Automatic annotation (TrEMBL), chain A:
Keywords: GTP-binding, Hydrolase, Metal-binding, Nickel, Nucleotide-binding, Zinc. It comes from the Bacteria. One of its GO terms (molecular function) is GTPase activity. The gene is hypB. The keyword Hydrolase applies. Belongs to the SIMIBI class G3E GTPase family. HypB/HupM subfamily. GO terms for biological process: protein maturation. It comes from Stieleria bergensis. NCBIfam families: hypB. Residues 34-194 form the CobW/HypB/UreG nucleotide-binding domain. This is Hydrogenase isoenzymes nickel incorporation protein HypB. It holds the Pfam family cobW.
From TrEMBL, chain B:
It holds the Pfam family HypA. One of its GO terms (molecular function) is zinc ion binding. Keywords: Metal-binding, Nickel, Zinc. InterPro entries: HypA/HybF. Signal peptide: none annotated. Belongs to the HypA/HybF family. Zn(2+) binds at residues 88, 91, 104, 107. Ni(2+) binds at residue 2. It comes from the Bacteria. Involved in the maturation of [NiFe] hydrogenases. Required for nickel insertion into the metal center of the hydrogenase. This is Hydrogenase maturation factor HypA. One of its GO terms (biological process) is protein maturation.
Length: 225, 135
């Protein structure tokens, strides 16, 4: 048999993207707004979620899937407020849809209003994996460099909202909110920016309002179609 | 590093295609990688060398229970690097971005859509002459 070249031209992640799209549609139909939270390690994703879940305890039904390489420490922090399942990857640097599906099956109830997926702390690999979210949010803390967006373009290009965390430390660190905002908007001009300090409960109102508005928009769009 | 799991997905697809072609052995796999694909070319090459004809997809948590059998240690990987190109939604000009500043080169607008450079694509397979792994 002679050598033969077969033309394919296919996105290698096409199947995974289609699976994520299918799961997203199910979430939309149930009215569950899904947020994928990404950042470097230690930027304050869990603290932001604690503040959010505390605030919403009697208002919305919230569930959280939290990813780490090991331990269920983050899940323990959130358990007083919400249904939470820890996803441990055993070393993998990002969450994949299959892990999210396993975590969903273990939750004591089907998430109703909001589902947060706290990704592995990593600004590289999680950018390439659609977890069926409606909104990708990147957190950046004031103890990181304000030139970070330009260094991790894919993560900032694929996120619609940038939450600046630990703003209570601004007087002590060389972090400029205007610089980081400008840098992020070179990559994504319409990036929404929210400044928060979870331990002082600052900016959490604006953050929660944004999520409620986004969920309302999702519900309105779903009822139209 | 997520290239290992992406290459596993690639090899699974290569196996399926080879199976549709008389279980032929694969001599060369050609992929396309863009600057915004989130894929490092060097790491893809390393993962490909590691896994070709070796990885047991049956042990893969997402595997479908088959061995990567259409590739061998001598299967070559050809990587085509493609540029990052955006189209402006205002003036419709296309810009070839050399860095990650998402602005239209023609009118300066930031309302641009990526039309090339954000994917990791399987372009083609070359089957080995006369060889097949139907055994």
């Amino acid at each position: 048999m002679p050598a033969e070249t077969i033309a394919i031209d296919r996105d290698i992640q096409a199947e995974k993207r289609a699976a994520a799209e299918g799961l997203r549609r199910q979430f939309t139909e149930r009215g569950t707004f899904v947020v994928n939270l990404v950042s470097s390690p230690g930027s304050g994703k869990t603290s932001l979620l604690e503040a959010t879940c505390r605030r919403w305890r009697d208002r919305w039904n919230v569930a959280v899937l939290v990813g780490d390489l090991a331990t269920d420490r983050d899940a323990e922090r959130l358990r007083p407020y919400v249904a939470v399942e820890q996803l441990t990857t055993g070393g993998a640097c990002h969450l994949e849809l299959s892990l999210v599906e396993k975590g969903l099956a273990k939750l004591p109830q089907v998430p109703r209003d909001f589902l947060f997926i706290e990704n592995i702390g990593n600004l590289v690999c999680p950018a390439s994996h659609d977890l069926a979210e409606h909104l990708r949010v990147v957190c950046i803390s004031t103890t990181e460099g304000d030139d970070k967006p330009g260094k991790y373009p894919k993560m900032f290009r694929t996120s619609e909202v940038m939450v600046i965390t630990k703003t209570d430390l601004l007087p002590h660190v060389p972090f400029d909110v205007a610089n980081v905002t400008e840098d992020a908007r070179l990559i994504r001009e319409d990036m929404q920016v929210i400044e928060t300090s979870a331990i002082n409960d600052i900016g959490i109102d604006a953050w929660c309002d944004l999520l409620e508005q986004r969920r309302d928009a999702m519900l309105a769009e779903a009822s139209e179609s | 590093m997520h290239e290992r799991s992406l290459v596993r997905g690639l090899l699974r697809q290569v196996d399926q295609i080879a199976a549709e072609h008389d279980e032929a052995d694969v001599a060369e796999v050609t992929v396309e990688v863009g600057p915004l694909s989130g894929v490092e070319v060097d790491l893809v090459k390393i993962a490909f060398e590691e896994q070709c004809g070796v990885v047991d997809l049956a042990k893969d948590p997402e595997g479908e229970g088959s061995l990567a059998r259409s590739t061998t240690a001598s299967t070559r990987l050809e990587v085509l690097e493609v540029p990052l190109i955006v189209r402006c939604t205002q003036c419709h000009a296309e810009s070839d971005l050399s860095d990650f500043v998402f602005r239209c080169v023609s009118c300066g607008s930031g309302e641009v859509q990526v039309i090339s450079g954000d994917e990791f694509r399987l372009i083609s397979l070359t089957l080995a002459e006369g060889a097949n792994h139907a055994r």
